[in-house]
């Protein structure tokens, strides 16, 4: 069965620090990969997605993620975080041809001003 | 604004009461989904509808029923609410095809006492 692991449940950073959030998935075949962000009190919004091509994907607000197939990983990065990046981040995986997405348990990021 | 609209935003129920959560999208998406979000557990799929006229169970369907009323609307019904169903419920929609990602509604915060 597919699964998604986000090992960092809570991360606290100061503004301007670099960010890397881990995401590992378990699935033997081709996958589509996503990162969603949920700002306090809001619904989930798509940050970026990967389904083929360049494994380094750039998303909104300066976020990027790198797909490393050999490690089954899709880590999210940002060189310099801002206070406004305080949110919960969810990694999700979907197998092509299916309608279901599997979400990780989320990483709660707090950025200190 | 185009998107996914959920009603109500907040609801308190007594154990054993029933209610229906409404969801409508105006993006002409084929697929619609209901998730529940619980602390430390991420998002779990309750039911989904790949296209108008079809519905399928997700990870946690027990205690819920759904109706895909038409292409726009997908409702979730709790027949006899239980405290374990206290959660935040999100409706989402997507294009047919698996790599577009979801558009989420703003959520319904349900408390069962």
Care to give the gist of this entry?
The complex is a heterodimer of chains A (about 110) and B (about 110). With about 110 residues, chain A is mostly beta strands. In chain A, about 0% of the residues lie in helices and about 50% in strands.
Explained architecture:
The complex is a heterodimer of chains A (113) and B (113). Chain A has strands at 3-5, 10-14, 19-21, 24-26, 32-38, 44-50, 56-58, 64-68, 73-78, 87-94, 101-103, 107-112. Chain A is mostly beta strands and 113 residues long. In chain A, strands 2, 5, 6, 10, 11 and 12 form a six-stranded mixed sheet that branches. Chain A has a four-stranded antiparallel sheet with strand order 3-9-8-7, with no helix packed on it. The radius of gyration of chain A is 13 Å and the shape is globular. The mean pLDDT of chain A is 92. Chain B contains no helices and eleven strands. In chain B, the strands form two sheets. In chain B, strands 2, 4, 5, 6, 9, 10 and 11 form a seven-stranded mixed sheet that branches. In chain B, strands 1-3-8-7 form a four-stranded antiparallel sheet, with no helix packed on it. Chain B is globular. The model of chain B has no long low-confidence stretch (mean pLDDT 92). The interface between A and B is medium-sized, with 24 and 25 residues.
């Amino acid at each position: 069965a597919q699964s998604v692991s986000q090992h960092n449940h809570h991360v606290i950073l100061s503004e301007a620090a670099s960010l890397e959030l881990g995401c590992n998935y378990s699935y033997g075949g081709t996958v589509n990969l996503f990162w969603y962000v949920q700002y306090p009190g809001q619904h989930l919004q798509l940050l970026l997605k990967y389904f083929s091509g360049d494994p380094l994907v750039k998303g909104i607000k300066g976020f990027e993620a790198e797909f490393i197939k050999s490690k089954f990983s899709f880590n999210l990065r940002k060189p310099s975080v801002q206070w406004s990046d305080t949110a919960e981040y969810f990694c999700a995986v979907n197998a092509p041809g299916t309608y279901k997405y599997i979400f990780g348990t989320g990483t709660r990021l707090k950025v200190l001003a | 604004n185009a998107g996914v609209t959920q009603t109500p935003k907040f609801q308190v129920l007594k154990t054993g009461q029933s209610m229906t959560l409404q969801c409508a999208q105006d993006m002409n998406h084929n697929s619609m989904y209901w998730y529940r979000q619980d602390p430390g557990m991420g998002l779990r799929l309750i039911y989904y509808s790949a296209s108008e006229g079809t519905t399928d169970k997700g990870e946690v369907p027990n205690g819920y029923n759904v109706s895909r009323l038409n292409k726009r609307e997908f409702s979730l019904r709790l027949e006899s609410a239980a405290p374990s169903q206290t959660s935040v419920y999100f409706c989402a929609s997507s294009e047919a095809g698996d790599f577009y990602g979801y558009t989420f509604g703003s959520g319904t915060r349900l408390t069962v006492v």
